Amino acid sequence: MQRLKAGLRKTGTGITTVFTGTRIDETLYEELEDALLMADTGVKATQHLLDDLRRRVKEAKATEPAAVKALLADALTDLLAPLEKPLVIGEHQPTVIMVAGVNGAGKTTSIGKLTRHLADHGQSVLLAAADTFRAAAREQLGVWATRNTVEIVSQEGGDPAAVSFDAVTAGKARGRDVVLVDTAGRLPTQLHLMQELSKIRRVITKADATAPHEVLLVIDGNTGQNALAQVRAFDDALSLTGLIVTKLDGTAKGGVLAAIAQERPVPVYFIGVGEQLQDLETFNAREFAQALLG
Ligand code: GDP
């Protein structure tokens, strides 16, 4: 929470300064609109928040700008609330989690952190290196496996779907609680990537008819509205069940979560707030709204 707060504050989207005036007038709403757009909230969510805020201000008969800030925090919390949902493990053994995301989003790091989080909660994890195109990706995942002392199913230059199949089969045979499947983040075209990921998804289901139980997308919190476009594209292709939003300790403005909540409310299971193993937090709508508003 502290790192999230520090990160979002550092970006200085100017929302806080909107409330330093003495009157609630159109200028305040205009400045707020600009500040929300600057914070990556996007046009639709900004409009929704402003409409909701005007209603709340009227209802509460607020007269001070400071009171408006508290009402905005409430409005933002309500908008973000559908994204607050825990990742539930234990209904299946193994729980098969497929993880997607464009290169650089923080996918491999997030898998490393998630492995630690699961281990801390008593779950045994098996990793699958299904990004067989990049040797570096496989090696990097291997480093996280060693760091967490968990097994990894990997195959040099192998077929990503075959690696996924083997990993799920091995996870079942060895009685593992969770199989985490790392997938490729870049292929020659987006069409190729989506076809590849859809194939992995289908083959996982062949290895276990109930799987995958979770399909996660890792997005970089710094990429603003582009992150929303990624959520749309991957959700259309793979039917996402959850998101991990990374790098919220850095220069990310955070407002994109409001845009996601408004347009494609896929639950945010975790947020990334650093590069180390423990820098993964569960998402809390109220805390996030408060951190965003400074
Ligand atoms: P991938 O290509 O999606 O697998 O991305 P990586 O996991 O290799 O991460 C790309 C870069 O982002 C690395 O330098 C990571 O250390 C960094 N990174 C990932 N998550 C976070 C985060 O939550 N905060 C910060 N500050 N850096 C992160």
From TrEMBL:
Residues 267-280 form the SRP54-type proteins GTP-binding domain. SUPFAM superfamilies: Domain of the SRP/SRP receptor G-proteins, P-loop containing nucleoside triphosphate hydrolases. Keywords: Cell membrane, Cytoplasm, GTP-binding, Hydrolase, Membrane, Nucleotide-binding, Receptor. It is a peripheral membrane protein. The keyword Nucleotide-binding applies. Its main location: membrane. Its EC number is 3.6.5.4. It comes from the Bacteria. The keyword Hydrolase applies. It is an enzyme of class 3 (hydrolase). It catalyses: GTP + H2O = GDP + phosphate + H(+). GTP binds at residues 101-108, 182-186, 246-249. It is found in: Cell membrane; Cytoplasm. NCBIfam families: ftsY. PANTHER family: SIGNAL RECOGNITION PARTICLE RECEPTOR SUBUNIT ALPHA (PTHR43134). Part of the signal recognition particle protein translocation system, which is composed of SRP and FtsY. SRP is a ribonucleoprotein composed of Ffh and a 4.5S RNA molecule. Involved in targeting and insertion of nascent membrane proteins into the cytoplasmic membrane. Acts as a receptor for the complex formed by the signal recognition particle (SRP) and the ribosome-nascent chain (RNC). Interaction with SRP-RNC leads to the transfer of the RNC complex to the Sec translocase for insertion into the membrane, the hydrolysis of GTP by both Ffh and FtsY, and the dissociation of the SRP-FtsY complex into the individual components. Belongs to the GTP-binding SRP family. FtsY subfamily. This is Signal recognition particle receptor FtsY. The gene is ftsY.
